[in-house]
Amino acid sequence: MNIYKIVFSPTGGTKKVADAVALEISQKNNGSIEEVDLTDYNMDFSSVAISKDDIAILAVPSYAGRVPAVASKRISQIKGNGANTVIVCVYGNRDYDDTLIELYDIAKESNFKVTSAIAAIAKHSIAYKYASNRPDENDINKLKEFASKIINASELLDEHKLKGNRPYKKIGKISVAPKTKNNCNNCKLCVNKCPVQAINIKNPKKIDKNKCISCMRCVSICNYSAKYINKVKLDLIHLALKKSCSKAKDYEFYIN
Predict the structure, then answer these.
(1) CATH superfamily of 2-168+249-255
(2) What distance lies between CA 200 and its chain's CA centroid?
(3) pLDDT tens, 134-189?
(4) Domain range summary for the chain, segments of one domain joined by +
(5) What is the largest CA-CA distance in the chain?
(6) How far apart (Å, rounded) are the C-alpha atoms in residues 75 and 41?
(7) pLDDT score recorded for residue 44
(8) Pick from 17-21, 55-59, 73-77, 126-130: least confident
């Protein structure tokens, strides 16, 4: 049996959550972990071979209360083949709105058998002062405890237990494309790692605002801190989220 860790995690928060779950299942079941990076635009996701005897972890961040469209598209190329699956949505302490129910529908459409679900909290990818220390040690321990239950879960999860609405909330146009400082040395790391190829390969200082999904990967991985969000815009985002993000929220776990 393999554990397929299928993750869209531009800044690493979602990956931390998925890693904790996968490692616990692997240690308890002696299974090997296969990682599928949904941010890799070069990957042929239709070639991922999951069997019914495997366990899948589908993990995505919540972007304005929805599954990132690019992650949805890439998951839909993978054939779940009836594998028992835990779906995971990770959010920055505001709300995950319809993300979890949408991910459930995407998984079902691709023939993943959803047996459990997690709504987890990690550092907000843009308003980074919120949930800055999540997942913390207590969160990881909760994930490990729940992972031990996932191993033997084989009953289809009752979707009515999940928070969220259909039709899903409308996706608003988010325009938070990073800017570039003059100390950019043209190393093209951001170009190669951008999940949607929004950064110009000839001039990495240029970002296509129509392609950019505001995932903040380029900001988080730049070795020279050359990518950044305009301070005025960032301050406004922090202010807008202050009421909904300041109080720490708990992880949510779903299983029959």
Answers:
(1) Flavodoxin domain (3.40.50.360)
(2) 24
(3) 999 999 999 999 999 999 899 999 999 999 999 999 987 667 999 999 999 999 99
(4) 2-168+249-255, 179-228
(5) 55
(6) 12
(7) 97
(8) 126-130
User: For the chain, what's the residue count?
Assistant: 256
Q: Which helix (H) or strand (E) holds 142?
A: helix 137-150
pLDDT digits (tens, 9 = 90+) for 207-252: 999 999 999 999 999 999 999 999 999 999 999 999 999 899 999 9
Exposure string over 102-112, b if 16+ CB within 10 A, otherwise e = bbbbbbbebeb
Amino acid at 150: I
CATH 3.30.70.20 assigned to domain 179-228? The reply is yes
Give the tens place of pLDDT for each residue, 75-93.
999 999 999 999 999 999 9
Q: Taking Cα atoms as reference points, which of 121, 118, 72, 116 lies closest to residue 95?
A: 121
Long-range contacts at 40-44 (CB < 8 A, ≥ 24 apart)? 40/195, 41/194, 41/195, 41/196, 41/197, 43/74
Q: Could you check whether the bond before residue 167 is cis, i.e. omega within 30 degrees of 0?
A: yes
15 CB-near residues (< 8 Å, 6+ apart): 7, 9, 59
Distance CA(118)–CA(91), nearest Å, equals 11
Q: Looking at residue 79, what is its pLDDT?
A: 96
Answer whether 0.85 is exceeded by the pTM: yes
Residues forming beta bridges with residue 199, ordered by sequence position: 207
Q: Give every CB contact of residue 243 below 8 A, 6+ residues apart in sequence.
A: none
Say if CB 40 and CB 78 are below 8 A apart: no
